[in-house]
Design goal:
The structure is a homodimer. Chain A is an alpha+beta fold. In chain A, about 25% of the residues lie in helices and about 25% in strands. In chain A, strands 1, 2, 3, 4, 5, 6 and 7 form a 7-stranded mixed sheet that branches. In chain A, a hairpin with a 6-residue loop joins strand 1 and strand 2.
Chain lengths: ~240, ~240
DNA sequence: TCAAAAGTGTTCGCTTTACACCCATGA
DNA sequence: TCATGGGTGTAAAGCGAACACTTTTGA
């Protein structure tokens, strides 16, 4: 057994894009194909070793810039995974023990437009990872599940959903973000009232033009007033 | 600049004991006096380097056993602190960079009875750390604040408060735990209703005897049904 | 029989939910 | 003028807060 513990920083990056089949907005994330052992050929979360003069977040940001061309506006620590047997697989036998500090990120629609995939990087809709990319390298499957649960939980009590959107947006678009993340339909009128009551959003005074219907007001997220919980309810069907 | 990053595991341990002045139940925690540089003589969170064949939680548990004689029933990861300048002090200059994975723990009343303080270990009421133990070594003051916020937040939506109590307890004692943690009085009748509605507690059928008044029912915490939020309200005064 | 804490009942007001309905625009 | 999504109104149900009131014990 080696007595060196390596420290790595990885990130689960979420973005919202249309689903390839249904066309509905869904969560996507980038994975990197491993080009060496252990787990050569498998998909893994983007990450890398922590450099000695680099802060943890900085390390996450640098890796994401390198692999996806992105600098997500929301980047938050998820958890530190460090069990001795955390990649209990034949592939990993004989390799050094790695403690990973994992971050999770949300990419705004505007930011997402800048995405440039690096070598061996590919984006997947989360609901297709099971068929197309599993099993992930190391314990990254477990980490991904954990990140998803955290995202879904946090969206209900904190205004992070805004991070998926550009500077200004109509409320219906914000609702579509919630629906995509929570994977269920929300009542438009009640949604509007709750968001406005929360004060996490402010009217820009402008409206979106060029719609095939009544032009919706544009809002921007109100930085200070991000307090208080939001209880999202679902409509039937 | 050194290119070696050291990995340590530390823990913020909370226990409830009577306040030395008021006699009311308050939060206490153990600190360890540093006996070498950096920060020699200052108080720090119990912790130590991560051993190569040790899991993260195991490391936390081993340190706590060694320093306090305790094996807390609730032990949960708090956060990984790893900024390059996280102990930006003259004391720390020239010392290796350390990434700390910090846990927090709750000690049950029954467990607390077993506490045996090791060398250089002392317990402090949290509200007296400012006068008696500050400034803490490294960034441990920041970490402690963060742990306190997390404890107070989590107590309102999860039944962790039970961890402070022995197997069986009357509801009034559980209420006193909430009051100590949240630092405010709660309405006994509404508290009772909320806890029972939650289902996080079950009737043992027994009662506490030897009280100077009507003997209260004894409850035990119901492991499975720890769902759903609890909104605690305060009584005035 | 009194004090003290356990435990129950009830009212008030606010929030959530469901859903009907009106508004403004492009086609 | 019609279809479509934006946006408002509102009544019913549910829930938290406040607090009066009953119960049960030891002293």
């Amino acid at each position: 057994m080696q007595d060196r513990i390596e420290l790595a920083v990885s990130t689960v990056v979420f973005s919202l894009r249309p689903h390839p089949e249904t066309g509905e907005l869904t969560l996507w994330l980038p994975l990197v194909r491993r080009i060496r052992e252990p787990y050569e050929g498998r998909w893994a979360l983007p990450g890398g070793p922590l450099a000695p003069e680099e802060n943890l977040v900085e390390s996450a940001r640098a890796t994401l810039q390198r692999t996806t061309g992105l600098t997500p506006r929301h980047l938050e620590q998820l958890y530190a995974f460090g069990d001795v047997d955390r990649s209990h697989s034949a592939d990993a036998a004989g390799h050094a023990r790695v403690v990973s500090i994992v971050y999770w990120a949300l990419v705004g629609e505007d930011e997402d437009a800048e995405a440039v995939d690096g070598e061996n990087v590919e984006w997947f809709p989360v609901d297709e990872i099971a068929e197309e990319a599993e099993p992930l390298a190391f314990d990254h499957g477990v980490i991904l599940d954990y990140a998803l649960r955290r995202l879904r939980a946090k969206v209900t009590y904190s205004p992070i959903a805004h991070a998926f959107l550009p500077e200004e947006f109509p409320l219906a678009q914000l609702r579509r973000v919630y629906e995509a993340v929570l994977n269920r339909a929300l009542d438009p009128s009640n949604f509007r009232r709750q968001i406005l009551a929360q004060g996490s959003v402010e009217d820009t005074g402008r409206r979106q033009t060029g719609t095939a219907h009544r032009p919706p007001k544009l809002y921007r997220s109100a930085p200070g007033r991000s307090r208080y919980a939001l209880t999202i309810q679902e409509t039937d069907q």
